[in-house]
Design goal:
single chain, alpha/beta, Spore Coat Polysaccharide Biosynthesis Protein SpsA, Chain A, 10-stranded mixed beta sheet
Length: 277
């Protein structure tokens, strides 16, 4: 067995793809990475030696239908990879799975040391610019440190780790027909709102508008607004209570997704995470 593989799906996101390949390549080896391209016109960046790519014809679909299609591609590939790997990690290209650095363990050594359930979720950290304290993003430097604030997020508390073949729901938010477990030491940092200019450019994209992404882009901008309007910033203690809240059972209509957080979501990211991504 080759132990751990990571996969992502991408369309027109070269700025995030380069960082995704660098981060997960360093964690697991680039030969264990797979990139699914939504569109045969998409290409791997020059820095991607050893990465395996899969290309599908792009079909213009509304956002929900497109998400379902991409989840199906990812689930099919994960099933194939689990023939030769112990663990498959699936994320969007702007999402990064981290082990709490206070444990002084690599991500791979931690995942291989625990008794994994069929799927495992990480606490969602939705990072954005705090306009009161932070300026333009330098893409040549780590995100964490330049951006020091986030929302604790049920939406990004995703079932991103899989140890046996299952079917992901849209966007890796859940695994179908299976409950979820939130790991006490894993975090999923989402950087879709890390750069205000990228959010603005994406919101004005004719393709995104035609596919029904307007409401999603409005939510992306709202993350920056919520973080920038907060007066109090919590940290580690709130992380622990949030994890417990998210783990409580939900109604039968959403039994395999985390419970929404109702309040106290804006935190100052602990300094021990700075520089990792």
């Amino acid at each position: 067995m080759k132990q751990i593989a990571a996969l992502t799906i991408v369309r027109n996101s070269d700025h995030f793809l380069k960082r995704w390949i660098y981060y997960y390549g360093k964690a697991f080896g680039r030969e264990n990475l797979s990139v699914i391209f939504d569109g045969t016109d998409q290409k791997l960046p020059p820095e991607s030696d050893g990465v395996t790519s899969y290309r599908f014809e792009h079909t213009p679909l509304k956002r929900a239908a497109g998400d379902r299609q991409r989840a199906s591609w990812a689930s099919d590939l994960a099933e194939k990879l689990l023939n030769t790997y112990d663990i498959v990690i699936g994320t969007d290209v702007d999402e990064f799975l981290l082990i709490d650095p206070s444990h002084n363990l690599s991500l791979s050594s931690y995942l291989l040391s625990i008794d994994l359930p069929p799927s495992l979720s990480a606490l969602g950290m939705d990072v954005a610019c705090n306009r009161n304290y932070e300026g333009a993003l330098d893409w040549n430097k780590p995100f964490l440190g330049q951006r020091q604030y986030c929302l604790l997020s049920d939406r990004y508390t995703k079932a991103c780790v899989m140890s046996r073949p299952l079917r992901w729901g849209s966007g890796f938010h859940r695994v179908k027909n299976t409950g979820f477990k939130i790991d006490p030491n894993l975090f999923l940092f989402h950087f879709g709102s890390v750069d205000q200019q990228v959010v603005s450019d994406s919101a004005s994209s004719p393709e995104k508008k035609a596919m029904g992404w307007t409401s999603h882009q409005v939510r992306r901008a709202a993350v920056t607004d919520e973080i920038s309007s907060a007066n109090d910033f919590l940290s580690d203690e709130r992380i622990e209570t949030a994890r417990r809240e998210l783990s409580r059972p939900r109604s039968l209509l959403a039994w395999n997704k985390p419970r929404p957080l109702k309040s106290d979501k804006v935190i100052h990211i602990p300094r021990r995470f700075y520089g990792i991504v």
